[in-house]
Amino acid sequence: MKFKNAYLKLTGFYVLIVMLVSIGFSLSLYKISSNEIDRGLGKQNNLFQNIPSINNTIFDQLDFLRQRQIEESKASLRLKLYYFNLLILILATISSYFLAQYTMKPIEEAYDVQNRFTADASHELRTPLTAMRSEIEVNLRDPKLNIQEAKKLLKSNLEEIAKLESLSSALLRLARGNDNFHKSFQRVSLTEVTEIAVLKMRPIAEKKQILIEADYKEVYIYGDNQSLSELVAIFIDNAIKYSPKNSKISIKVGQNKDTAFFYVKDHGIGIKASDLPHIFERFYRADHSRNKEKIDGYGLGLSIANSLIDLHKGTINIKSQPGEGSQFTVKFKRI
Ligand code: ADP
Q: Crossing angle for the helix pair 147-176 and 301-311, nearest 10 degrees?
């Protein structure tokens, strides 16, 4: 168990608190009870002193018996309180151990997620670095390296650097979390943010001769302008990446009763049912071996999208058929 020490410390801490309360309670109870017993004795003494037939010898004997009785009562009370505290100690230890496990579970899970994330991120960062390093080494060893080859090397290095940049900005985006975004929440036109995202992504689509068809209806939600535009762009980016050349992507912004929605629909490679439950996991990438060309990506886009949807209290629905295409629909509360 990874957190064994923490479990034990937390258990000890819980037990300590319970025992302090229990012992404090027992001491007060003992004090009050002893006072009561002593007070009872005082009253009896006065009573016997007023009876004329009781002489001093009998009075002393009675007093001695009463003193013994009182000591016995107090001893019995002490013993009972002692057993009571022993029982509390056993129960507190058992329940504190389970309570400590319950308290530590989310911490342990978060720790595991963080560890996995760091390992995956380091792995992804290493891949382009290793590629760059080996290319440079091979070229440096070549005494006949000419300017054309050197330029080719620089171009290839530049591509790797671009990958590193996009990876580090995705990692930063995830690390930043959603803490401060609510401050920038305002009435936002879903149409406007979608238009901005389409404008940004259109040149990339054109490189693959992909046509983006958009159908907008003016609808407003409460949110952060920039992250909503970022969200739409993630889906368009994926639609372009996973679609063949000369295909079409449809985007729609609309409303239904009190919800506003947008969808991005492509006619690309689609997603297998077995991959669907995992595509929002960080660094998860479905097997793209069906595709001849390698598709760039780190498996971070949809995790970022998911956290942005959560931030806006939205929901997402995916329809996808391998070989036919996918449709990602995101819904928000309309205002
Ligand atoms: P990336 O695209 O960088 O791999 P994402 O987190 O955006 O990472 O997506 C995770 C995975 O989900 C992708 O690797 C891909 O397998 C699948 N996926 C996402 N969008 C689509 C899409 N429009 N068509 C087919 N597969 C998709």
A: 30
> How far does residue 190's CA lie from ligand 1's centre (Å)?
23
How many CB atoms are located within 10 Å of the residue 309 CB? 20
Longest dimension (CA), the chain: 132
> What is the pLDDT of the chain when averaged over all its residues?
89
Helix (H, G, I), strand (E, B) or coil at 44: helix
What gap in Å lies between CA 30 and CA 80, rounded to an integer?
10
For a pocket test of ligand 1, which of 124, 237, 269, 302 has the largest count of ligand atoms closer than 8 A to its C-beta? 302
pLDDT in tens, 117-133: 888 888 888 888 998 99
Number of Cβ within 10 Å of residue 155's Cβ equals 9
Nearest to 318 by CA among 287, 279, 290: 279
Residue holding tokens 């980016």? 237
Q: What is the pLDDT of residue 1?
A: 62
Burial label, 233 (beta-carbon count in 10 A; 0-12, 13-18, 19+): buried
| CA distance linking residue 69 with residue 15, whole number of Å | 35
What's the token pair of residue 115? Answer: 């560890």
